[in-house]
Amino acid sequence: MLVIVAPGQGAQTPGFLAPWLEDPTFADRINWLSAVCDTDLAHYGTDADADTIRDTAIAQPLLVASGLVAALALFPHPADAFRTIDLAAGHSVGEITAAAGVGVISAEQAMVFVRERGKAMAAAAAEHRSGMMAVLGGDPEEVLAAIARHDLVAANNNGPGQVVAAGTLEALERFSAEPPARTRLVPLQVAGAFHTNYVAHAVPLLGGFARAITTHDPRTRLLSNRDGHVVHDGRDVLDRIVRQVSSPVRWDLCMRTMEDLGVTGMLEMPPAGTLTGIARRALRGVETFALKTPDQLDDARAFVEKHGEGGPLEGNPTWRLLVAPVKGVFSLAAEQPAGAALAPGAVVGSVKSLRDDLQVAAPHGGTIVEWLVEDGDPVSPGQPLVRLHPVSAQ
After folding, report:
1. Hey, what's the signal peptide range on this chain (predicted)?
2. Are 237 and 378 members of one domain?
3. What is the pLDDT of residues 306-335, one digit of tens each?
4. Using CA atoms, how far apart are residues 62 and 48, in angstroms rounded to an integer?
């Protein structure tokens, strides 16, 4: 089983786009996306220094564009991707890359949205002298307690041995002077305390933009940073991306869902290395591939062929399916036979896991064509539960 992941801010390095721009097709696509987001991506991906591309308004469009264009090089025909990718996820701004990759929004919509996201987050972060710092190693409970004691926030939980503390620069300096035992601290190349209340001012603005964007439901299972759940409603995907701006990234829960699904291979889009590095420590037995340069494309395609199976949503418009958000046991809400009409928002059942008891609703309504599970069945994340005809009850 294959998961394709997209990294977040801090993964960018000076010149990382240079080898890709040697390909005229890739260069043309980057130039087009540069025009869409009104940012000279080719310049920032080749000639700009580390301090320049640390700017949030530059880094975020650069990251999303590089992932999307590399995906186009890897899968020249998008339908091929849906036949081989089982799962997709993005870390922080990488969620926009992943959402576009599975068809929730177009590449052009993604670039306009990420441009505004980067500008809004940069403006919000500029109101405070804040930053982020990776805390590597140590006892997890001691690390979290020390972060809270210094008035910081655990803005990213990236799994065992890696938590990201965020807050004011003064608080981070005090934290650095008294680090938790057996830890190593690494300042991150970001311009503010993202995924905390320090950038909450950006959320209402981005919410307005998101409401104006037409969405489609994912054609492949997509994980959310909020809780590691599989999200199958396109509108919910975008709403979650907006709220995630000021909420902690739970990449640890995303990886837990990957384990639940039995992922065997992880391919990271450029600028690759961060998420595959985390996976090598946290997902034992999962083979990783960090796609960094175009001369790796043939090997990357072989990796996809080796691990990709094609998710259960392949070939189906997923708004006609309701899927399980997590691993657990499905309980039917009420007896609803084939032919029953569901109003928009109708609850069909729930999935109970060790952590959650989550309702499953039909956001668009519809008529039940067939049940794909029965009451009391164990289900996996993203498993289709019921097939609907898109004619809802009036």
Report:
1. none
2. no
3. 999 876 665 444 457 899 999 999 999 988
4. 12
